[in-house]
Amino acid sequence: MPPEVALACRAVVKRYADVVAVDGLDLQVFRGECFGLLGPNGAGKTTTIEMLEGLLTPDAGEVEVLGQRWADAGTALRPRLGIQLQETQLADKLSVSETLRLFRAFYPSGRSVPELLALVGLESKAGAWVGKLSGGQRQRLSVACALAGNPDVLFLDEPTTGLDPQSRLQLWDVLRRFKAGGGTIVLTTHYMDEAATLCDRIGVVDRGKLIALGTPDALVQSLGTAHVVEVTFEGGTPPPGAWFTGLPGVVEARVAEGVVTLGSSAIHATIPAVLTALAEAGAAVQELRTHSATLEDVFVALTGRHLRDG
Amino acid sequence: MAERHASTFLASLRELTLARIREFLREPEAVFWVFGFPVIMTIALGIAFRSRTDEPVIVAVERVAGADAVLAALAGAGGFVVRDVPVSGVERALRDGIVQVVIVPGTPASYRFDPARAESQVARLAVDRVLQQAAGRRDAFTPREDAVRAVGSRYIDWLVPGLLGMNIMGTGMWSTSFAIVTARTRKLLKRFAATPMPRAAYLAALIGSRLAFLVLEGVVLVAFAWLSFDVVVHGSLAALAVVSLLGALAFGGIALLVASRARTVEGVSGLLNLVMLPMWVFSGVFFASSNFPEAMQPFVQALPLTALNDALRGVMNDGETLAGLWRELALLAAWGGVSFAAALKLFRWA
């Protein structure tokens, strides 16, 4: 049995005054999966997720949520979705539990306030004003508000941007529990580790287009290189990329901003060979680093830019 | 399904109203402006416009021949204060209200005064009477005077309902529209729009929370005026409450409309002033709206604050019943209803 489709975009286009934010995007998200939209700032992630959320109307193409369209079934869809927006500032002078009670009141059914507090680990802050919370606590409260109606689908727009590592881990836990309960998650992020850890499948978005789609492992494997070697040199310009391509295990070689980046399928053969060849050529190596290929490398290979470059 | 919808609406309305009331009460400055300001205003105006029965007439006499005779006549009559004003400063003294009339002795004497100022006109008449009598005029008869000093017919009695009306307008407009624009800039409205919250419930809660504050505000102002100036309510308190509530509903609706599109606090402040300024001037807060020309009356009478002030004065000063004020009340309800519907249509959530 094929997996049930929870969300679908077909040839979706959204233009703003002078930019095409989303440019013919096709996408499917299945029931029960965690789907990540990965891309740099301004790639069109927020515009895409807000069209799925029914907050923006596409200029062209179709959006379907739980088998229905926003224009036909907007009021029926709303209670089934939990939405967390990137820029919302909740009222500072309401307490955590007052805020949750407010959001809970908007839904015909859902979780109780104590349940929500427990879900995001804010029991001890129930009576505290929102204005007194830390960034991580606020973000967890924001997710708790999105969970108030016990949604089928949870949308999160850059939920961990600006959070400290511990807060990120806590929030990831909340999302894993939601997913374990059968929920579908769509999140945007520009943290590749977040996408790799949380998401079953990832869509890489750049300049309004989907440029790659698959599980994190499949995306990394598509590079054809399990490892990446980066070499910098003391003074002078590095040798051209072609100089490295004949060496053992080297699948791909690029030079950018003084850094030679080699994709390798056999790291144990590549490193000694590279060092020997460079020593023979008299090039002074300043630093040699190696890591397993990541989604970041996928993004760089696809676009020639880093995720954080924006 | 419809029943479930109605219960979500009521639950949303209740929680939104409570949230608004809580937020307001946790903002000390807002509490001061809503409750303290009208009282301070009443004190200030009560002092400025207190009933002046034996206020002296302030005059200046130019030091030319005959001045001594004029001064002697004024001193003999009593009730005049003579100020020394140099000849070069006469214009300025009149303009600034330092003196009300300047007497230039001579045959005949001449009076310099500003006919646009009531007190200047009164001073001219008082001076003229004394000087004419000193020159030998005999009054044709001496009228019997019956000064009205009864509670209920003083300026302050007329002023307090106007202040109450102005306050219902002002605090309602400012607090409601600021709450909306703040929530909009914080993207809270967008967040609410992403939930199944009934949108009319959000707008209704803003008005509903205003009614809760109004009860306190109105009670503070009316009680203060009663305790310190003996201003009494001639009609029923229930009628006064109904008129005030309807006024608050009307201005709540107008505030929603004014703030329905604005993206910044600065933007909405400008709009509020634009909307309220004509009503401060034309709607009979400090002086009767009937002072404006006949041609303007249809406009003046259509303003919601005119209707509110007329209705408040009807209840407080004339003891009118609600039935007798149906025109004003209908106008207020229409302003509120139409503005609410228009605001719901125009409202910018994102």
Structure description:
- The complex is a heterodimer of chains A (310) and B (350).
- With 310 residues, chain A is α/β, with parallel strands linked by helices.
- Chain A has two domains: 216 residues, Rossmann fold (3-Layer(aba) Sandwich); 69 residues, Alpha-Beta Plaits, CATH 3.30.70.
- In chain A, 32% of the residues lie in helices and 28% in strands.
- Chain A contains ten helices and 13 strands.
- In chain A, β8 and β9 form a beta hairpin.
- The longest helix of chain A has 16 residues.
- Chain B has 350 residues and is mainly alpha-helical.
- Chain B has two domains: 244 residues, no CATH class; 78 residues, D-Maltodextrin-Binding Protein, domain 2 (3-Layer(aba) Sandwich).
- Helix content of chain B is 65%, strand content 5%.
- Chain B contains 13 helices and four strands.
- In chain B, β3 and β4 form a beta hairpin.
- Chain B is elongated, with a radius of gyration of 27 Å.
- The two termini of chain B are 28 Å apart.
- At the A-B interface, α3 of A face α1 and α7 of B.
CATH fold name of the largest domain in chain A: Rossmann fold
Question: How many β-strand stretches of chain B?
Answer: 4
What is the assigned CATH homologous superfamily of the largest domain in chain A? P-loop containing nucleotide triphosphate hydrolases
Q: How many domains comprise the coordinates of chain B?
A: 2
Backbone CA Rg of chain A: 23 Å
